[in-house]
Specification:
Shape: elongated
Structural class: alpha+beta
Number of domains: 3
Strand content: 15-25%
Largest sheet: 4 strands, antiparallel
Oligomer: single chain
Order of helices and strands: HEEEEHHEEEEEEEEEEEEHHH
Radius of gyration: 33 Å
């Protein structure tokens, strides 16, 4: 259901059975809403004013994009308020980022946090972004019109780099260009989250010519985001490799400790005199040196 559908639903609900116009009230701020004022319906047949719609991260203008206004039909005022609190936390995160690529991606290198635009919108509202730890990002894939142009991930090698063709179009390793238009350009980001396994960063979601400045600017931004995501994934891979190596070294060290602890016990089960005779024979045959024999004899006599 689009914003206009929601708006028409509201007009129907504020006309009573006698055909008389009634005054609506915003469930969020309590403001009276006139018959011709823009508003949106929420759960329970309640309404909120246009200002509160914007604060919640939505728009009554379908051209703006972002969150589908029909989502509000299933949210109560308390749920919307809780979302606003979460949005404020994201906004604070945004302030701490130290690099960004357009309005599509922001990065906090100190805390290793990525804030990615997970919904296409001209509104730079926190509700349109997802906050991820770097170690949650496992794969990334650049897709145009359903074709994979570039990818990188923890599980495999990176597909070759991108180049611009004569018309400004991206040339990828597996993409097949048959038209001079682009209907959709996005990055799929796979994350280590069972509830939300992937998010999509949309750069283009309407038909545009590949020789237009908008397409070329969008593809450049998409490449920049891909480059950054692949660096993050490579860092994750290196860190995991270091962790595996450290775990192996720790296990090896623990194994050596156990062997050393077990060695005296193993020696105690043998007759020291017989062991000395055995090592004396080895020394006589030149297999061990006199110094090594004396060391073994000293250990056996000390038991």
């Amino acid at each position: 259901m689009m914003a206009q559908d929601n708006f028409e639903l509201i007009l129907t609900k504020i006309i009573d059975k006698e055909g008389r116009k009634t005054m609506a009230r915003c469930e969020m701020c309590g403001k009276s809403i006139g018959f011709f004022d823009k508003k949106a319906n929420i759960a329970g047949g309640k309404v909120i004013c246009e200002n509160c719609v914007g604060i919640a991260g939505y728009s009554l203008n379908p051209a703006v994009g972002g969150n589908d206004i029909s989502e509000l039909l299933y949210l109560s005022a308390d749920q919307i308020k809780a979302n606003i609190v979460q949005d404020k936390a994201i906004a604070e995160r945004m302030k701490r980022t130290n690099s960004r690529i357009g309005n599509f991606a922001m990065f906090d290198e100190e805390e290793k946090i990525a804030i990615l635009a997970s919904k296409y919108s001209v509104m730079m509202h926190p509700h349109n972004y997802s906050v991820l730890r770097y170690d949650q990002i496992t794969e990334c894939e650049l897709i145009e019109n359903g074709n994979t142009l570039d990818s990188g991930g923890l599980s495999g090698a990176v597909v070759g780099g991108l180049l611009f063709g004569a018309t400004g179009a991206i040339i990828g390793s597996s993409a097949k260009k048959t038209t001079q238009t682009c209907e959709n350009l996005m990055i799929k980001v796979t994350i280590a989250n069972a509830n939300i396994p992937a998010i999509y960063i949309e750069f283009i979601n309407r038909t545009v010519g590949r020789n237009t400045p908008f397409y070329q600017e969008s593809t450049l931004q998409a490449q920049d985001v891909m480059s950054k995501l692949k660096l993050i994934i490579e860092e994750n891979r290196s860190r995991k490799a270091d962790q595996r190596l450290q775990a192996a070294l720790t296990a090896q060290a623990e194994g050596l400790k156990l062997e050393r602890r077990a060695e005296p016990h193993m020696l105690q089960t043998k007759d020291p005199v017989e062991e000395i005779r055995k090592y004396k024979g080895l020394m006589d045959e030149g297999i061990i040196s006199p110094a090594e024999f004396e060391e073994k004899k000293r250990m056996l006599l000390a038991m």
